[in-house]
Amino acid sequence: MTPDPRQRAAELARQAGVTAPGDSAGDDGAPRCRCGHPVDKRAGDGLVTCRGCGHLPAACSCPPLPAGAPGSPGGGEARLAKIAAAYAPVDWRAAWKTQPEAVEWLLEPLLEEGTVNALFGKPGAGKSLITLEIALHLVRAGHVIVYIDQENRITDLVERLQAFGAGPDELDRLRMYSFAGLPPLDTTAGGVHLLALAVTAGAALVVIDTTSRMVQGKENDADTFLALYRCSLVPLKARGITVLRLDHPGKDESRGQRGSSAKEGDVDTIWRLVQAGPAAFRLEREKTRSGHGEATVELHRRFGPLRHEWAARTKGPETKIIGQLEALGVPPGAGRPAARKALDAAGIKVSNAQLEAAIRLRKNCPGQLAGSSGSRAEVPDCPPVPLIGTGSRAAPAPASAPERGQKPAEPPCQHPGCWDALYGYCLADTPERTAS
């Protein structure tokens, strides 16, 4: 068999005292003398000589380079080990101990903590208005929001906030940057500037309105959004900061966001906003990495003050799971570990997303299992939990009594223990009921 010319050349080099490219003694890829110094080709005869002493490598008189130095025996491994020491692998034992019992939401079911999310819809559909209301809702709940707005004037923002019933004294946590002139977010400088704003403020959420106006690359170029993810989104996600970026759809709205399909690769969840009527809207989830939460949310616009009431209904296998948990004697307030343990012991297989939804439904509607037994619970159509507006979890808006002569609201479900007929919201969602 004819030997490989490269292997033959490397062997001749070693016999002559020259380290060939790729050997451990020459981790930079350049030929070196056996002492570790680089070699030079001598003019005239073309022979190689040691740069340290000037002799041929076979007659080199240099002392060996110190162990661990680039070019020394073992120097390549030592250098790689030093680089590797800068990175920490996952500590699985610590990760197991700190795993939360339930999904940690910033705003359920839209924003899971520490995720990157996209919201798109037709121009004028209300993306910016609804997102500003979300920001106000979270600010009232005690979170800090960094909002980068390249769409709306300050006068427009003030007008909308006034319509929401907000005042300047409650907006200190809303760090709004309107036409602030940040560097493009698909550049290193843009990512550093955005991270500086978020970290300095202690932000729980960063809003980018609108994505296409904050990049310098072409919208149809995949590299633009790969750079956006690498430069701006990864640093935020690595710090557990939630991101919501707004965008427009393409000519065919059913095909998703406008521009490169790479936009879909950098996010955990994609929501599409659809206007279903003059004051009715719907959020439809088109992508999710985790499967957590409901996939459709209904929004109804109300006035006096302006607000959107959100309603997400849980349907499907969660109903059966609730009955199974009841039959197994799992308390309604039990978390996912206890429920999972009971189901596994009974040989019942359910997904984490389905179990999470069932647990949430049980907690939101106490008493809904009265009279149910076995694995076929007759779960009534409990009132949807409003996420923003009347009955909101984190920052409930004050409810108003019905006008004189107006009939009080009738409960969608027939158990007064969780439905307030006077004000028309789920008592299971009030702080007093939750705390008891």
List keywords for this structure.
Rossmann fold, 3 domains, 28% helix, alpha/beta, nine-stranded mixed beta sheet, single chain, disordered C terminus, extended, 17% strand, two-stranded antiparallel sheet, 436 residues
Question: How would you characterize the overall build of this protein?
Answer:
The structure is a single chain. By secondary structure, the chain is α/β, with parallel strands linked by helices. The protein contains 11 helices and 17 strands. It starts with a helix and ends with a helix. Mean pLDDT is 77; it is low at 20-27, 366-381 and 390-436. Helix 6 (188-201) runs parallel beside helix 7 (222-238). The strands form 5 sheets. A 9-stranded mixed beta sheet has the order 9-8-10-11-7-12-13-14-15, with helices on both faces. Helix content is 28%, strand content 17%. The chain has 3 domains: 5-69, no CATH class; 104-280, Rossmann fold (3-Layer(aba) Sandwich), CATH 3.40.50.300; 318-435, no CATH class.
